[in-house]
Amino acid sequence: MGKRSNAHLRAQKEGRVRDLQTCQICGSTDNPTGHHIIDIQHGGSSNLDNIITLCDTHHKKVHSNKINITKF
After folding, report:
1. pTM of the predicted model, to two decimals?
2. DSSP 30-70
3. Section 15-36 average pLDDT
4. Domain ranges of the chain
């Protein structure tokens, strides 16, 4: 993956702030990350509406296809 754009980084930060730094699946506040609901490479946008805050555990599960957040 190349360098992330400012819009990308800003959207992830705004998503974490909106979600109170809390995983939207389990409620954990440990190491929250902003995750694109629809990945940029699949036509997703770098804006707040396309971001969900996830903990490390759930972020990894999404990336390994163990959780589908578009159906969650």
Report:
1. 0.86
2. SS-EEEESS-GGGT--SSGGGEEEE-HHHHHHHHTTS--TT
3. 96
4. 6-63
